[in-house]
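Action item from last week, closing it out:
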Amino acid sequence: QLDPVGCESDRAAIAVTVYPRPAAPTTTNLSVCQNTTPVSLLSSVSAVGTLKWYADASTTTFSLVAPTPPTTTVGAVTYYVSQTSADGCESDRTSITFTVVALPAAPAVSPTPVTYCQDVTAVPLVATATPGGTLNWYDVATGGTSVASLIPSTAASANYYVSQTVNGCEGPRATINVIINAKPARPAVTTPVAYCQQATASPLSATAGAGNSLRWYGTAVTLGTATVVATVPQTATPGLLNYYVSQLDPVGCESDRAAIAVTVYPRPAAPTTTNLSVCQNTTPVSLLSSVSARYT
């Protein structure tokens, strides 16, 4: 410094330290599905210093609390974040794009309701996803575990549900109503039936419920081809055979099959006989003495 008479002091030193600016934080853009639980953007930032959050690239207003953007509005919003070192130096800002992806609509289902007869074999339910969509099938309206394909039970009526996932987002569920029509009871049958071997048999007898029709299956307990004409049992071979009949109601549901037991008894052997010769005018004798037999 210089005094009024022009004399200058010794020089004093001033140390100036320039601290390096920290690197900008590393960020990851975040994409979420519409209406999911909001998450903090802190999870998408990697940094070592104190974070400052900005609404745009140039504003000086910041927050030390990471934003938790809403997920109700579809679209993309960009946020900015910097980090400040322990020396008080602030980095450049890094952007984070937060995107809310729209949920797809419920898939189209056809037909609904789906109708089955009780206990018949069902086929997978049908729905149509939008291009690029994946179907998710459920047996509950909410929650549950999805499957790629669903075959409904035909034991009782129930609702089934299907959604679709597009771009990683799952939409609402559509409902398919499956109606199960009860099958009729077995028809009333006349059983057992008995015949002698080689006797002429009559058609078997069964009684269907009002409005129902009979279906005859011969000796097939399962499968086979039905006929509406009553079965005439065979009598050529002795033994016991079961014949089967069901009934069909007006909506096309078939009952379980009722069994009609038919026994064919073997014919006995012809009696053994001996020819008989007598003298004229002798006392008549019964021919029974010349026959050997076990039965009447």
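Closing note: DSSP finds no helices and 22 strands in the chain.
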